Amino acid sequence: MIDQAHPEGLDDVSELLLRAELSAVFQPILWMHDDMLLGYEGLIRGPQGSPLRTPDRLFEAARARSLDIQVEHRACQVVIQRFAALNLPGRLFLNVSPMALLHAADGALDLIALLAEAGLNPDRLVIEITEQDQGGFWADLLPAVTRLRAKGVQFAIDDLGSGFSNLGRWLDLRPEFIKTDKMFTAGIQDDLLRQQILRSICDIAIIAGAVVVAEGVETLDELACVADLGVACAQGYYIERPVAQPYRTHWSELSARLAERRLADTQEGLEPGGACDGTEGRALRLLRRTPCVAPTVSNEAVFELFRQHPELHTIPVVDDDVPVGALTRSNLIERFSLPYQRELYGAKPCRLFMNAAPLIIDMHTPLMTLSRWLAESEGHGLVHDFIITGQGRYLGIGTSQDLLQALNLLQQRAAQHANPLTQLPGNVPIDRQVKRFLADGQPFAVCYADLDDFKPFNDAFGYRRGDDVIRLLGRTLSAYTVTGQDFLGHIGGDDFILLFRSRDWRERCRRILDDFSKGMIQLLAEQGQAADGCYEAQDRRGERRRYDLPTLSLGAVQVEPGVYPSHHQIAQAASEAKAQAKKQAGPCLYVERRQPEQRPATQAA
């Protein structure tokens, strides 16, 4: 805080303005998926070694002397001039408060003239509306925003989710960029709630046509997570700190670090992206931004658009943000190749040639569902592009090639982490799901399923019939697992893990025990054995004897928020509960009721 008893600190503000002792520093903003630079955020600093070096202290002192608008305008001049002098690439993100922007519009600062003097085009400037209580004069601010936007200036909402930077301002301003507050980025790789918030912001931004920038990225894990969530851009200390002369880092180095991290994850048995992959398995991940045309645009103009963009095979026809058709390169060229067609129809509206029934897909459509629709729909098939929408509004297109590549990647990842016998998730997805449930902060139950007397059965009937028993157990457990709420995984052999969020999980466990016992009797009857819960087979000495059928033991642990610090302790508790269940004769459900500190410590394997 500025000491009110020492006005010399405030006098320094006036002197700074007179002596122009403000300086600029710049922090890069990275397009993550293209290894490209979006631009730099320009930040202001006071004199080196001065109490007013940091912007917080500087503007606090300025406000105390009612000089904050003058200081802010001077800061804009310094940042723009220095940005031009350094010949920095990309856009300049400039922090401007709503009040300073209003005064600038009244003639106190001509931003367009200042850009012209610096040799910068207005379309390279992005004004970040900084946090203030904007309610009293927001209506007056919008005309100033409209005038600047007409000149080519773009806008960003800074620190969305912090203070007054709320969704209502998003609706009013309709910014080209959204910069999320750093509190959403900190530790995001371990926090499902932060991931869901950022994922929701990205979904809204796609519909609004805005680019999301995640601020406050300080670790490689955070960078990887926001990238996997589909965030377009990132900014933070991990990429580069604000400096007077940016290093112009080779952004491909960061991409290489991300690739190395994913490779290390794969080698350690972790799925790249993990819980952070917000668009994995959905049509949104296939989205390509492409030009679109109105139904009234001429066929000749569409032909020229295809000529200018040789990579395009499909151009959507969109009327008031709603897709109404599609034009393909091959169809238009074929029509124009016929005698007199170009002369007759070139100037006519493209709706005459468009396919009025293109395949339109919502961005949340599962890729497997999309693949089935393409295979089954007449007139489309896997050789055609499709239109992707959000809440019915046009977003872009998807290609069949991208779909096939995405499905192949999903299958590879699933195969890496699925049990080959049951195709159920293996150890890595089980651990990941336990972590997710822990991060949710909601109670759940972990149930360890294991067979009793399975080895004699396996020896007597062979591994093929033993595999039938394991498949039977997998089907039985699956029948009582609610999709989207519970989780079932196969550790290996005859060991399974169930994660229950269903409230009636105890009753489900009892039914599992009963159904598995009945299934074993049926399985034995198929072998011609008596259905009395026993079977006869030769032991290892060649003597025939009667054995009990394999039965099921379930060891369960109730997990309350904050009780178990990690998935390792949960796994140990579930294993101990399973051991207690196996001590009982016949089918058994054992529920561990002791808290972790009440249970004796066990030697780790």
UniProtKB/TrEMBL annotation:
Record-annotated CBS domain positions: 286-344
Annotated region (Disordered), positions in chain: 585-605
Example GO molecular function: cyclic-guanylate-specific phosphodiesterase activity
Entry keyword Secreted: no
Keywords of this entry: CBS domain
Entry-linked PANTHER family: CYCLIC DI-GMP PHOSPHODIESTERASE PDEF, SIGNALING PROTEIN
Protein name listed in UniProt: GGDEF domain-containing protein
